[in-house]
Amino acid sequence: MTGRKLQERRLRVWSQNPCCAHCGKLCAFPEGFELDHKVALLHGGADTDENCQVLCSGPDGCHVKKTCRDLAC
Ligand SMILES: [Zn+2]
């Protein structure tokens, strides 16, 4: 999913809870976070708003760590 639809989802999910789901840090919109699938798509998770959460971005952010874990690297 790309473009406008993804931006709309980012705004919706962030509006519901702008804090990182992992560490609780308040994330700025739009650069301070990445949208994450609670259950990774490759693990059978649904591509819906309900399966998405805010994770802080950046080289040391929770999104990097979570993605790493999802991919078992
Ligand atoms: Zn975080």
What does this structure look like?
This protein has 73 residues and is of the alpha+beta class. The termini are far apart. It has two helices and two strands. The chain has helices at 3-16, 62-70; strands at 33-37, 52-56. The chain has one domain (3-70). 32% of the residues lie in helices and 14% in strands. A two-stranded antiparallel ribbon has the order 1-2. The protein is globular, with a radius of gyration of 12 Å. Bound molecules: zinc ion. Zinc ion (ZN) binds at residues 20, 22-23, 25, 55-56, 61-62.
Low-pLDDT segments, ≥5 res = none
List the ions, cofactors and other small molecules found in this model. zinc ion
Q: What's the tally of helices?
A: 2
Q: Count the strands?
A: 2
Q: What pattern of helices and strands is seen along the backbone?
A: HEEH
